[in-house]
Amino acid sequence: MAKLQKLHGEYILKDYKLSLANDMYLETGKALEVNVKLVDNRAITDKQRAFIFALCGEISYYTGEDKEWVRMLLQTYNAKLRDIEVESLSTCDMTYANGLIDTIINFCIDQEIPFAKKLIDDYGYTFDEKQTYSMCLKRICVICGSRADIHHVDSIGMGENRKNVSHLGKRALPLCRQHHIECHTIGNEAFINKYQLSPITIDKKIEYFIKKGKLRVFKEE
Asked: How far is Cα 176 from Cα 156, in angstroms, rounded to an integer?
């Protein structure tokens, strides 16, 4: 198997067999375009496996579909999405498991399938900026999955008319009432650090829905 190493700041590919034609092409000083697939030798953890089954259980409970069928369906969907093969959860690696977990979480966000706060807490899952953006549009709390409104991380000022003031470029998070109160209690930065959050930057699409009243915003306190 070919190996990729780093020596004095340069990446070196070893033990890779080239055809004679490609080898002669490289001799001319030109470069070949290659696809590199990294091999993850870390086996899936029990925690990852349990999280996947628990998420599929949540979807099964919400939809009424068989849990094993849900898991097989999502693994097939994940494989097509990432252009990879479906792998067994007993022998796959950590990279495959993490990708599958992200796919399942994204599916739940997109389909507005609720997941228990305890489930997210127990497995220490944190949402990235892209997921947080989708959760803003879906009005899903980025901490617990409950119904949420938009919290401005960057203040727009008290008493401002939200239909007139610009929200563009301001950081925001979708938070339920409980976590919005906690955020104000401990402060934005402490709150973000505590839950390892990735606030979104409000763009024209988010601002449009805020000004139309489709996305509700917490009042400044």
From this structure: 20
Helix (H, G, I), strand (E, B) or coil at 10: strand
Q: What is the pLDDT along the chain (221 residues), one digit of tens a residue?
A: 777 788 888 888 788 888 888 888 888 988 888 777 778 889 999 999 999 999 999 999 999 999 999 999 999 999 999 999 999 999 999 999 999 999 999 999 999 998 888 888 899 898 999 999 999 999 999 988 888 999 999 987 554 555 567 899 999 999 999 999 999 999 999 999 999 999 999 999 999 999 888 899 987 65
Confidence (pTM): 0.77
Range of the domain at 156: 126-211
- Could you tell me how far CA 65 lies from the centroid of its own chain? 24
Residue 102 lies in a domain: yes
- Residues 154, 108, single domain; the answer is no
Residue tagged 């849900």 (tokens): 70
* Residue 98 tokens, joined: 């993490």
- Whether 42 and 93 have beta carbons less than 8 Å apart is answered as yes
Tokens encoding 181: 């109160």
Same domain, 55 and 86: yes
Does a structural domain hold residue 56? Answer: yes
80 CB neighbour count, 10 Å cutoff:
10
C-alpha span between 190 and 132 (Å, rounded)? 18
